């Protein structure tokens, strides 16, 4: 199982720029399942730079896509950095899907071990979950294979499982004369 997040205003489509995203939908994905783990809500940020047009329009409380009041960090420095709170929410994720990701955020995501994935605006999250599940089962997406391998090595019971394996003395490693 790997955790994957999607920048989504309606919880069903990838339709937000990472930096402007007010909402991330988080799933735990396995070879034959996907379970919604939660939704992260963030304060709206003014976008700058060449990707600013990917920002989501403001929603009113009577809009069906409105998900409640965003979380605003107490620390003034964190309020200026729109990525810090998102990285904290996404820290256990293998990947995050968005319609655009700025260069600075891209570097920070990769530095945190989170694979940034650019999706087509409006791409259906359910179909992306099926693609990820298929890749977990059959391979084909290199970041999914890497994430699954990392998840396997992080299992807390992996050493106990290794201890239960039979020990076979193998002297093939010794230098031959």
UniProtKB/TrEMBL annotation:
Keyword Phosphoprotein carried by entry: no
Database matches in InterPro entries: Di-Nase_FeMo-co_biosynth, DiNase_FeMo-co_biosyn_sf, NifX-like, NifX/NifY_domain
Keyword terms of this UniProt record: Nitrogen fixation
Domain called Dinitrogenase iron-molybdenum cofactor biosynthesis: residue spans: 55-132
Domain of life: Bacteria
Keyword Transmembrane: no
PANTHER family named among the record's database cross-references: IRON-MOLIBDENUM COFACTOR PROCESSING PROTEIN, IRON-MOLYBDENUM PROTEIN-RELATED-RELATED
UniProt similarity note: Belongs to the NifX/NifY family.
Protein name in UniProt: Vanadium nitrogenase
């Amino acid at each position: 199982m790997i955790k994957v997040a999607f920048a989504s205003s309606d919880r069903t489509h990838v339709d937000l720029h990472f930096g402007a995203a007010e909402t991330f939908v988080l799933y735990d994905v396995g070879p034959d399942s996907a379970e919604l783990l939660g939704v992260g809500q963030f304060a709206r940020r003014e976008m700058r730079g060449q990707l600013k047009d990917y920002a989501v329009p403001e929603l009113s409380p009577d809009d069906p896509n409105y998900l409640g009041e965003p979380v605003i960090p107490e620390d003034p420095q964190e309020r200026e950095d729109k990525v810090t709170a998102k990285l904290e929410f996404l820290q256990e994720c293998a990947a995050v899907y968005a319609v655009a990701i700025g260069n600075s955020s891209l570097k920070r995501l990769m530095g945190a071990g989170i694979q940034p994935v650019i999706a087509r605006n409006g791409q259906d999250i359910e179909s992306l979950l099926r693609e990820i599940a298929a890749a977990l089962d059959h391979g084909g997406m290199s970041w999914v294979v890497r994430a699954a391998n990392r998840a396997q090595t992080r299992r807390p019971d992996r050493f106990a499982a290794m201890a239960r394996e039979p020990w076979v003395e193998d002297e093939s490693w010794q230098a031959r004369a």
